[in-house]
Design goal:
The chain has 145 residues and is of the alpha/beta class. Helices cover 39% and strands 17% of the residues.
Length: 145
């Protein structure tokens, strides 16, 4: 997989195949990009589970925040990583550990987040990977918004 350039059909297929998303690094701060993305994805019909250890047990946009991926009831089709590039590997390792229980099939790393080792590990575990892209932007672009 060439992670420098994604085929439009690949992105479209990922977004169409996903219904449940764990957003790791979710924020309750309404001016943060992770908050915008969470609200947008919910508005588009995705079930979004926010992950943030500081906010665990609270609500963001009506969704209960979980401490970590392992605490989510599942299923989770996609893990959207709103953390820095270095932290992405740990998130992917957590996703691989929970993959069979949660049915995780996609790792998505937000704009500015790229970790080639994390991508290799996720792909080695059978997951599809998108790096340095935003699902909100891609959804809007592909749907003509």
């Amino acid at each position: 997989m060439n992670h420098d350039s994604y085929d439009e059909a690949y992105i479209r297929d990922v977004l169409a195949s996903v219904r449940t998303i764990a957003l790791v690094g979710a924020s309750a701060n309404q001016v943060r990009p992770s908050y915008f993305v969470l609200k947008y994805l919910i508005a588009k019909g995705y079930a979004v589970t926010p992950i943030n250890p500081v906010l665990a047990g609270q609500q963001i946009a009506g969704a209960t925040v979980h401490l970590r991926l392992a605490d989510t009831p599942g299923p989770i089709d996609m893990v959207d990583i709103f953390r820095n590039s270095e932290a992405a590997l740990g998130v992917v390792e957590d996703a691989i550990a929970e993959q069979s229980r949660l049915c995780i099939g996609v790792i998505w790393m937000q704009l500015g987040v790229r970790n080639d080792e994390a991508a290799r590990r996720a792909e080695g575990a059978g997951m599809r990977v998108v790096m340095n892209r935003c699902p909100k932007i891609e959804y809007g672009r592909l749907s003509g918004e």
